[in-house]
Input
Amino acid sequence: MTSQDAARTLFHAVTGTSPAGIWSAPGRVNLIGEHTDYNEGFVLPFAIPQRTYAAAGPRADRRIRVTSTFTAEAVEVAIDDLDRLFPTASGAVPAVTEWAAYPLGVAWALLAHAPDAGALPGLDIALSSGVPVGAGLSSSAAIEGATASAINDLWSLGLDAVTLAQVGRRAENEAVGAPTGIMDQMASMLGQPDAALFLDCRSLVSRPVPLGFTDSGLELLVIDTRVMHAHSTGGYRERRESCERGAAILGVPALRDVQVDDLDRAAGLMDDVTFRRVRHIVTENQRVLDTVDALAARGPRAIGELLTASHASMRDDFEISAPELDVAVDAALSAGALGARMTGGGFGGSAIALIDHDRSEQVAESVRAAFAASGFDAPHLFTVAPSAGPRRDA
Ligand code: GAF
Output
């Protein structure tokens, strides 16, 4: 059964009726620009074909019930209780946790955009995810995007894609409690076939950047290590704090404002760990700009070394890689990949490798063999091409 059918079937099983519509939003891979988003820098992600579907419809009362194919129980709350359930301003722990905090957090964040929140109908929402969960491919942004698109229509809010991305990020930061940037939501909401999204995370100005992989005989392989990552815990938050500390020491609003030429001076002003975190962000921002320039001037074959340099920086300076990710990258490169790197928040999840179409079997074989030799569980391998953003499917 497709994920779309699964969402529709679940909706019917829970409500006994057909949904008013089905909306979907994609996951993403990030080609380059990691942890630069919350430093107000640059990123170059693209939406992938894997999507999350929300079958949804209005209710006669003012309650919201969310169900999903990845969990047994339904969670139901009153619209009027959402502010109490997500009391972020007081710093209290939200009463809704786990997966339901994503769709209910989106509903909560959308209330701020409703001219007359007291008149909004309740909702039934059934979710089904075709984006692997915990693989670093933004299954959470896909849930947020599908839910936000559905509610935007059912509550007739008329919000644009960038506002819906901001709503998704607010849900993730304040309702779920994961201190992420805005890259994933923007990548999902502004996805386009055939192009990556070059995004300035300070201004939120973006433009599509054609990749031309197919015309150059290339494809992008995803190596899902199946080592789970989680953003709301430990490492991600710590990295963010290091970046904020580095920016404060350097007297700038964000590390976006530091250039590669400033790094020598920065080295003398802070401890070694903070400096290496800063160096990753500063050099990574420059690599994003160089990648965009290289794509335009020389085409996709010219970006391989930048991808691999990005991985080395995350492994050695930002220290967010994992043994499985390093093995994936090294095995892909030794089998002839043009470039490879981990993608997403790190500490597990997926790596990507830019490969020649006619070497894809060799690279996949080399990665599988390296995983087996290291005693790791077999990875999931698949290729992805840039895909469309959110849409109403039915
Ligand atoms: C995760 C976060 F959600 C993003 O905001 C971004 O920081 C990414 O990690 C790292 O680049 O996906």
In short: The radius of gyration is 21 Å. Residues 3-208 form a domain with the Ribosomal Protein S5; domain 2 fold (CATH 3.30.230.10). Residues 30, 34-35, 37-38, 180-181, 183-184, 231, 344-345 surround 2-deoxy-2-fluoro-alpha-D-galactopyranose (CB under 6 Å). Residues 162 and 225 are 31 Å apart (CA to CA).
